[in-house]
Amino acid sequence: MRAGPVLFRVTSAVLGVQMLLGGLLTFGFISVEAHEAAGFVLLVLAIATMAVWLTTKPSFRLMRVLTVMIVVLILFQIILGFATLGTGSQAIALIHFVNALAIFGATISGTFLVLRWNQMARVPKLI
Ligand code: HEM
User: Fold this and answer.
1) Is 82 touching ligand 1 by the criterion CB < 6 Å?
2) Domains of the chain: total
3) How many A from CA of 8 to the centre of ligand 1?
């Protein structure tokens, strides 16, 4: 399988873990460090995924736009996370939660787009 779909799947899996860690943090089962570290791992993975999709041939415009959007949302999410820690504001924590749902939604859409791209990019076998 090619790098774009593989990286997208790994990023989605880490996002799942990060959402779980967020829930555990909110209910006081873990301290913030693991959630913070996973946040930065997720950002690095999302940037790598975006870089691959921006250069992949044949190009798939929807995936290009989506992977850029996911990186922007994660950057915003990290800023919101530190703002929540810095201020203790429940309103910012709520925006952090809503933005997490937006990232999750974008990732689900991407999963279906990747399936479509896999079919489009497959070279038909002669015979
Ligand atoms: C790396 C920087 C991040 C920091 C410092 C951070 C910080 C926090 C904090 C303090 C909470 C608890 C909020 C509360 O008081 O209820 C939280 C919860 C949560 N975080 Fe993060 N976060 C970060 C990144 C992320 C990322 C990248 C995601 C997902 C894409 C994410 C998803 C969540 C979710 C789903 C929750 C549970 C819902 C909520 O209470 O907002 N966080 N985070």
Assistant:
1) yes
2) 1
3) 21
The one-character DSSP state at 108 is H
Range of the domain at 63: 3-121
DSSP one-letter string for 80-103: HHHHHHHH--HHHHHHHHHHHHHH
Distance between CA atoms of 49 and 52, rounded to whole angstroms? 5
Gap between the Cα atoms of 69 and 10, Å rounded = 17
Distance 50 CA to ligand 1 centre (A): 22
Domain assignment present for residue 70? The answer is yes
Segment 61-93, tens digit of pLDDT: 999 999 999 999 999 999 999 999 999 999 999
Q: Is the CB of 107 under 6 A from ligand 1?
A: no
Structure tokens at 23: 């829930």
Please compute, for residue 47, the number of CA atoms within 13 A of its CA located in the half-sphere on the CB side: 6
Alpha-carbon gap, residue 116 to 114, rounded angstroms: 5
